[in-house]
Amino acid sequence: MNNGMQTGRRAGACMGALTRMGLSMCLALLIVVPVWAQDLYIEITKSASTAMPLAVVPFGGLVLGDNNNMGAIIAADLERSGVFRLPINDHLPAQPHSQSDFQLPVWKDSGVDYVVVGETVAAGDGKLRVRFEVLNAANGARLMGQMVSVAPASWRDIAHYISDAIYEQLSGIKGAFATRIAYVTQTGTGKNRHYRLNLADADGARPVMLLDSPKPVMSPSWSPDGKKIAYVSFETGRSTIWVQDIASQRREQIASFEGINSAPAWSPDGSQMALVLSRDGNPEIYLMSLADHSLRRLTSHYGIDTEPRFFPDGKSLVMTSDRSGKPQLYKLDIASGTIRRLTFEGDYNARGDVTADGRTLLMVNRQDGKFRIAAQELASGQLRLLTDTAMDESPSVAPNGSMVVFATRSGGQSVLGVAALEGGSRFRLPAREGKVMEPAWSPYLR
Amino acid sequence: MKTRLIKSLNPALAVLLAATLAACATKKPVAPVQPVVKPAETQAQVQTPAVVDNSNAVNSGSASTNTGIDADKLAGDANAIKPPVADSGKKIAYETSLLQTRTLYFPYDGDNVGDADFRALRAHGAYLAANPSARITLHGFADERGTPEYNVALSERRGLSVRDILESSGARGVQLLVVAHGESEPADEGEDEMAWGKNRRVELDYTSAKP
To answer: Do A89 and B144 touch (CB under 8 A)?
Structure first.
């Protein structure tokens, strides 16, 4: 029996076409097929045409875990980012592991700008030493290089650390490869439906189950320190809000008032939770102090006010409200209570999420009956659509603002999608079985 | 094409669901959202369909003097301990058949109750009024389009529409509980208008003294 995942790629012909004919669009398909029980697997559906060509040579030295290679994880990370375009393995002209065995003539016409090489060796202290270098393919010069020491069990974390370092060096943006995604899976139909709240690495690896329930779970929200998750559970037959510590799995119910208890969202300083309660007659947004569970009501309109998310400075919230007739996004200033409408395009805008730099607002936008993920520059108000599917929901932006994960339907399946905010790159995370939904991207975890 | 193997790890063992906790806070009356029912209008609506629409209802040719549901009874006779006793067995059959309606359907993005459903709710309201120990939970649902949290709120609005009609038909607030489910637990998992129409619903669930 095969122990591991297969990576197959069919991009070779397409890559050739790109370089020869200068096509502006290229579809690259990367299928990572799970053999072990991994929840999610990756399908790249679109690669950026402006991506930087880069090769990652399989690392020399030790084979990790079950037939794994540091270089493979790094290659997958960099390709998913949309910033880089990688050739398939059999098109590598050579397999160097350091600058000293890099042969320039072999690489000069390879079509790549940079080559990542490295090696993993066992150190005397029981740890692994991982060395990597990024070399300029045109002249063999070393752009960067590091040696890191890691406990063998954490080899995946080091692979993502290296991906972050390379990504940052070459794109100028902080990497988010060492982050995680929380998501809900649903299996079964009708009375046999079963729901699980899970966490996995941003590439779908190492899933961990947090909650297993015969009733729906929704709206996971990470604490800013990445140690807890708040979520809505219907385990008692109606919506209630819980906070669960990831390491200890201990959980606490924080809201079970009459009516709806839902849409939890942590404040950036971790001290408060915005949430939605309909105890006063219709859904309104409240702030709960996590120290003593005291409540402060922020909205008072007979319409629906929901889906609060903090702006990064913690002073205001974006919220969805249908006070003008249909759902639109509004900015609520917490201190003054002032509410200002943010969205004007499309007849439905909901589920706002603001990037960490405070400049871009992600949302679900409906036009012509299609629900798509859109990004709006808050300064200019300019809106652009990021997806071309029709049933998108639950966008959650990565902590570096470069990618957004969302729930969507593809080929009759409920899957997660990931799109680059700069456009041009997308991939899917379908579940091995059942439906995936309600994703939430973690904050930085290191 | 060369392929390489990357390991994937087993998920950690499941966390079993903790024992459920008592869910409800102390119930207190919740002010309804803007009412959707205009009482004067509805009484007029009720009288005629009882005769005309239902083939089990009073035969228009019969000598029976019952040409419709007794409006006074509908208004909520708190002293009644049994459903209204009809002169004609056919009238009870009519009300019973209305009471069989346990699912109401709604338009896209809307919470309006249609005429046929409205008549069914009047019958349920009358039943609840006549049976003070009866309790009913109104489960509200939305179809899958749109965002899950907004759909929870929308599904509550549908439940509240139904609750308002039941209250104005004689049910007491304490008999009625609205639970909003949003887009989860669809009746039909399909992805077309037919399926979505079946999912935009309120389910009437008697938790005691079922008719």
So the answer is: no
CA distance to A144, A310, A326, B202, per residue, from B154 (Å) = 54, 23, 11, 11
Residues 6+ apart with CB under 8 A from B17: A211, A212, A213, A214, A235
Nearest-by-Cβ selection for A218 from B21, B148, B157: B148
Q: Which residue has the tokens 């008072």?
A: A300
Residues A62-105: tens digit of each pLDDT? 888 766 788 989 998 998 888 898 886 567 889 999 999 999 99
Chain A residues within an 8 Å CB radius of B3: 6-8
Per-residue pLDDT tens over the stretch A327-355: 999 999 999 999 999 999 999 999 999 99
> Is B150's CB within 8 Å of A253's CB?
no
Select the residue from A306, A318, A323 to test the B interface by mutation, using most B Cβ atoms within 10 A: A306
C-alpha–C-alpha distance, residues A218 and B181, integer Å:
11
In the block, residue with structure tokens 């359907």: B105
Global pTM value: 0.79
CA distance B146 to chain A (A): 7
Asked if A68 lies within 8 A of B178 by C-beta distance, the reply is no
* ipTM (interface pTM): 0.86
Tell me, what amino acid is at B195?
A
- Measure Cα distances from A398 to A81, A179, A202, A273 in Å: 11, 8, 10, 20
A316, A411, A389, A395: which is closest to A358 by C-alpha? A316
Q: Tokens at residue B33, please?
A: 């959202």
- β-bridge mates for residue A129, sequence order: A121, A149
CA angle at residue B5 from A446 to B11, to 5 degrees? 50
Q: Give the residue from A262, A319, A353, A366 with the most B CB atoms within 10 Å of its CB, the best one to mutate.
A: A262
Look up residue A64 and give its DSSP letter.
B
Contacts with A68 from chain B: Cβ below 8 Å: 5-7
CA A54, CA A48: separation in Å to the nearest integer? 13
